[in-house]
Design brief:
Blueprint lengths: L1 E8 L2 E9 L24 E9 L4 E9 L4 E9 L4 E8 L2 E8 L4
Antiparallel strand pairs: 1-2, 2-3, 3-4, 4-5, 5-6, 6-7
Length: about 100
């Protein structure tokens, strides 16, 4: 659904939406803030502030923006091999995991 560019900023990891898949609305229409409903999803941060936690062996302490719900939720992520990142959002006792695969230009 999303193509994301992942960067490191001030010691934490961020993912910015750079392209949308078919059927994904181009605007942030589900945002609870009416002023943000017209902003483009391309260029929006999908996740931010993930820091490496060596004890847990994953990135923790981050936030994830869920465009389909217009909500920010807590997040963590881990690598599975060199080319797969799993990002997991947490709301109360529910979790949702998104899988990203590295692509080359």
């Amino acid at each position: 659904r999303y193509q994301v560019q992942i960067t490191q900023q001030a010691g934490t990891w961020h993912g910015t939406i750079v392209a949308l898949g078919p059927g994904v609305p181009p605007k942030d229409t589900n945002n609870p803030d009416p002023a943000r409903r017209t902003r483009n999803l391309v260029g929006t941060d999908l996740f931010w502030n993930l820091s490496w936690n060596p004890t847990a062996r994953k990135f923790t302490g981050g936030q994830l923006y869920a465009p389909d719900r217009g909500r920010e939720i807590s997040a963590e992520a881990w690598l599975e091999g060199r080319n797969t990142l799993r990002l997991q959002g947490h709301v109360l006792l529910m979790t949702r995991t998104i899988t990203f695969h590295r692509v080359t230009n």
